[in-house]
Model the fold of this input.
Amino acid sequence: MRIESPDTCGRLSTELLELLYYGELPSSRAASVREHLDGCKDCRNRWEALRTWLDKVRSLSPEPSEETLHRCRAEFSRRLLKESVGRGKVRPGASSPWWRTPWAAAAGVVLFLLGFAAGWVVAPTAEGSAGPGYLLDHPEFYTTTAHISYDADRDVLSLEVVAARRLQITGSPQDPEKARLLARSVLAATNPAVRRQAVELLGELSPYVQEIEPALIAALTTDPNAAVRTRSLEVLLRRRVTPALCQALIDVLLNDPNLALRLRALEALSELLEKEPAMLRPSEVTRLLQVAQNSESTLLRRRTNALLQEFEK
Amino acid sequence: MEEPELVERAQAGDVDAFTRLVAEHDRAVLRLALRYTGSEDEAADLYQETLWRAYRSLPRFRNDSRFSTWLFRIAVNVCLKRIEKQRKEAAVLEPIASEQSLSFSATTPLAGPETAFQLAEFRQRLYAALQDLSPRQRMVFVLRHFEGLPLAEIATLLKCSTGSVKKYLFAATRRLRELLQDVYQETL
Done:
């Protein structure tokens, strides 16, 4: 494109100087411009002013904070979880409404299996139209009180949520898929007290749940509520060590706003690595080094350093 | 697990694979959104929309570019569309908005060693000035000046010629110099 005529001495336009600044001139053209700048005080002054100004503007470019990134990731994880609960194991790109998809039939089966005794909350006439997805879309039914009980004689687990209306979810804990669905559906609740109950439920059902998916681990350990995160960590630590859990602990250590929780994660990590040092991958050692060097807490820095030294041995 | 395998699994509906895939590149998405809007809340919102759109469009991803490039392109489009929409809404509600946005050019000039307060004020003015640019001018400026992308790459992202990208960039910097004239004058 044609470069417009210059402002002063007549040789170098501001646009040309901008291209020089951005390194967008061919090398021969850049050399001739630099040669002119060496000999022309007027253009050199303009070049210096432009460069200083552009540098100054660049120095103001904002960087997202770790906290914001952490919050965004947690929110997105929650949205994905909600989607996978509400629509079964959803395939990305699915655009049909869920009630018109084949999984609607499956939802009906799940509903039946879970033994939803929802009364007037879940429309009893349309078996396929209600299920965890229905609950998630109607958060007004969640509340501050929830009670979990297990009737060993009948082998029936109940999660009772007392809301504006009363809702009961019951089912046998022996089926891991059921347990996961139940926990995940409640995890998407807006009320932290209900989420906390979901975590407790997960803890109770833990022996029956073979694997907790990394996305669920991430959602639990990044919950906006500190009490839910703390309890989640304890529940997860009672389980078999997996790389995902190890990674989640380091995430907590790096990003959690609560120092007590970060210290707990570090302590758990030390214990885990004592038993299974192979769980720590080189990229995660680098992340631990970040904590050791950059954490604002002296205690955390010192303990992370100690862990790394122990690990090196 | 390598990227193509993660993509394949994510396309088959594996939510965890998608989460892992995105975790490598989502910081760049959030950074672009923040640099484009200057607001953490808006950036967080654009982040959600970008990732959600990527998740929904994943079956159409053909591996003919890197996943990161594809995701970044979605982020660029989401940012552009959002601002275009906001502008249309603002034009209906408040037709004199563009005149109002000029008023900040006459604020007190910065002088001497800058305090944190002055820098914060300048950043605020810079973002007010960026809002005066067209969505594309602003995007080109952010991509070239803040993100350091070459003009040719920006042209590919925006699906236009390098010449057009230069026009957007020159228009953007010229307008910013006008709007932040006092700061520019200091450097002369």
